[in-house]
Design a protein that fits this description.
The chain is mostly helical. It has one domain. Helices cover about 50% and strands about 5% of the residues. The chain has four helices and two strands. A two-stranded parallel ribbon has the order 1-2. Helix 1 crosses helix 2. It is globular, with a radius of gyration of 17 Å. It starts with a helix and ends in a 24-residue tail after the last strand.
Length: about 110
């Protein structure tokens, strides 16, 4: 009985840790490109962590800690060091989505 309880506690702890990591990944991803609080919340509600892990976008790379700067097209919620300006040329085509040119893979 004690072994079963210990396994259950370890399993639930691992699940909780994974859930928290997924939420952090989604939060960083959505913060990178969102320009309004409404867009940020909508992103958090609709994006899945496994999608972010598969994407090669600037926002996905930022969420995975592969880059730590906010590019010139990053939204106002991005918390990294800012580089460039909104008017400067950028190779960050598609930060987020295929529709808006903010989420698409380069």
């Amino acid at each position: 009985m004690t072994l079963v309880l210990a396994v259950a506690l370890v399993g639930s702890g691992a699940w909780l840790y994974g859930e928290l990591r997924d939420r952090e990944l989604i939060d960083r991803y959505c913060r990178y490109g969102s320009v309004s609080a409404a867009q940020l919340e909508t992103c958090r509600e609709h994006v899945r962590a496994d999608e972010i892990r598969e994407r090669g976008t600037v926002a996905a790379r930022y969420a995975r800690d592969e880059i730590d700067t906010c590019g010139s097209r990053a939204g106002r919620f991005c918390e990294g060091q800012r580089v460039g300006t909104r008017s400067s040329p950028s190779n960050e085509s598609g930060i987020f989505s295929d529709d808006s040119g903010v989420f698409a893979d380069p």
